[in-house]
């Protein structure tokens, strides 16, 4: 969401930012809507001034014993015109807000230009893929052969893009989530939160999923939405709140299921656990003062990277191009883990600085320690990590020639000491 005043002050810069997102010029249409709204407000104010003057004339006329009925009628007519002006101003404001709500965030200046992932920039690589004397298999081949991963049973229950994990793989999923939470809370200073999995329209509007991406979400019969990520409830904890600067930064984390319709993913990753309708994720959210947002993004990305380092999973960090970022992001780093079964790096986390884009939609402010008034907070979110994809990465990177899977050292305390996942 944007401040219309900022667009009035520099419409060319706003259109240039939209162009980097692949969006055509918007400023002229927005300013026309805003001008109509401001004109209605000005007319209403002028009518109010005239009405006040007429009201005084009524009192004066009555004081002189004169008939004031004509003036009273004029005041009544002015009131009707004022109401019409207020309605036009209100509708104009709604039109401006609706137009702004559909526009993505403007990329930060250091974000590379480009229409899609082809323009993303590799920042660094960490770890080397293991050399094996056998052909690595994909996770679904491993899981099905072991008897611990069942897509057919899931399809009978729920349809495509679901999975049933059994025995040690089910425990591995739970172990990974617990390990991530402990790392982020015990060592990185995040506060664990257990949020609702059902939210209202306002929450999804605040973080930018609504109104534009409703088709990617699941909704209930009574108007709730299933969260696509814990970013939604965690970030909205500060909606309509004013936080003292001394209480910032706020750093929270949650392990939740996530529900996505994947409406735009037809034909992509139809096999396996990479793209499911339901998956688990450990989310990281930070609420900070504006001057600390850039540093917080680097910190958050490092917190997510630490999970991969401790699990000894090779990965790379990518700076996303303007055309590949999410709707609310101003700058995003993707962590891509090496999957030997696919012979490719695949996304396992996105860490984004949203600036004040979400805060404006949520009306989330802070009160600076010095000076007067309030200002919008800046919000950041990241996956720390996607649990299902981490299961995939552990399976593929720690697989053995006989199809068993070695449990990484960091996870063994969470697996009851189990060091090898074998067949059922």
Describe this structure in words.
The structure is a single chain. The protein is of the alpha+beta class and 424 residues long. The protein folds into 2 domains: 4-101, Serine-tRNA synthetase, tRNA binding domain (Helix Hairpins), CATH 1.10.287; 117-421, 2-Layer Sandwich (BirA Bifunctional Protein, domain 2), CATH 3.30.930.10. Helix content is 40%, strand content 19%. Strand 13 and strand 14 form a beta hairpin. Helix 3 runs antiparallel to helix 4, helix 5 packs across helix 12 (387-397) and helix 7 crosses helix 12.
CA radius of gyration is 27 Å
Mean pLDDT: 95
Question: How far apart are the termini?
Answer: 52 Å
The CATH level-2 architecture of the largest domain is identified as: 2-Layer Sandwich
CATH superfamily name of the largest domain? Bira Bifunctional Protein, Domain 2
Q: How much beta, percentage-wise?
A: 15-25%
Q: Which structural class do you get from the secondary structure elements? A: alpha+beta
Largest sheet: 8 strands, mixed
Quaternary structure state of the chains depicted: single chain
Sequence of secondary-structure elements: HHHHEHEHEHEEHEHEEEHEEEHEEEHEE
- Low-pLDDT windows of residues: none
Helix content: 25-40%
Give the neighbour order of strands across the main sheet. 1-10-11-12-15-9-8-4
Counted by DSSP, the helix tally is 12
Tell how many strands the DSSP assignment holds. Answer: 17
Total discrete domains: 2
């Amino acid at each position: 969401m944007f401040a219309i005043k900022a667009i009035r002050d520099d419409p060319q810069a706003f259109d240039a930012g939209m162009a980097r997102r692949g969006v055509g010029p918007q400023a002229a249409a927005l300013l026309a809507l805003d001008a109509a709204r401001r004109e209605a407000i000005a007319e209403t104010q002028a009518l109010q001034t005239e009405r006040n003057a007429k009201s005084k004339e009524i009192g004066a006329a009555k004081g002189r014993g004169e008939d004031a009925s004509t003036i009273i009628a004029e005041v009544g007519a002015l009131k009707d015109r004022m109401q019409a002006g207020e309605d036009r101003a209100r509708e104009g404001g709604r039109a401006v807000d609706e137009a702004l709500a559909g526009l993505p965030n403007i990329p930060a200046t250091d974000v590379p230009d480009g229409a899609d992932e082809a323009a993303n920039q590799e920042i660094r690589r960490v770890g080397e893929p293991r050399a094996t004397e056998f052909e690595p298999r994909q996770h679904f081949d491993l899981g099905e052969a072991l008897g611990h991963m069942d897509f057919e049973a899931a399809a009978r229950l729920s349809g495509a893009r679901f999975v049933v994990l059994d025995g040690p793989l089910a425990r591995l999923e739970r172990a990974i989530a617990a390990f991530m939470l402990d790392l982020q809370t015990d060592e990185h200073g995040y506060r664990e939160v257990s949020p609702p999995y059902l939210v209202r329209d306002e929450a999804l509007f605040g973080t930018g999923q609504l109104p534009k991406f409703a088709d990617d979400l699941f909704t209930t019969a009574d108007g709730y939405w299933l969260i696509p990520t814990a970013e939604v409830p965690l970030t909205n904890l500060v909606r309509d709140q004013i936080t003292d600067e001394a209480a910032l930064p706020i750093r929270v984390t949650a392990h939740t299921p996530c529900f996505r319709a994947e409406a735009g993913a037809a034909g992509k990753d139809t096999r396996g656990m990479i793209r499911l309708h339901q998956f688990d994720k450990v989310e990281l959210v930070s609420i900070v003062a504006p001057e600390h947002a850039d540093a917080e993004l680097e910190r958050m990305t490092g917190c997510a990277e630490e999970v991969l380092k401790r699990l000894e999973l090779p990965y790379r960090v990518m700076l996303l191009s303007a055309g590949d970022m999410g709707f609310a992001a101003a700058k995003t780093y993707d962590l891509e883990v090496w999957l030997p079964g696919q012979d490719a790096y695949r996304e396992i986390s996105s860490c984004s600085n949203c600036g004040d884009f979400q805060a404006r939609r949520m009306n989330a402010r802070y009160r600076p320690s010095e000076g007067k008034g309030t200002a919008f907070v800046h919000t950041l979110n990241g996956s720390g990590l996607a649990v299902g994809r981490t299961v995939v990465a552990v399976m593929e990177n720690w697989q053995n020639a006989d199809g068993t899977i070695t449990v990484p050292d960091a996870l063994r305390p969470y697996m009851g000491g189990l060091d090898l996942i074998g067949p059922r």
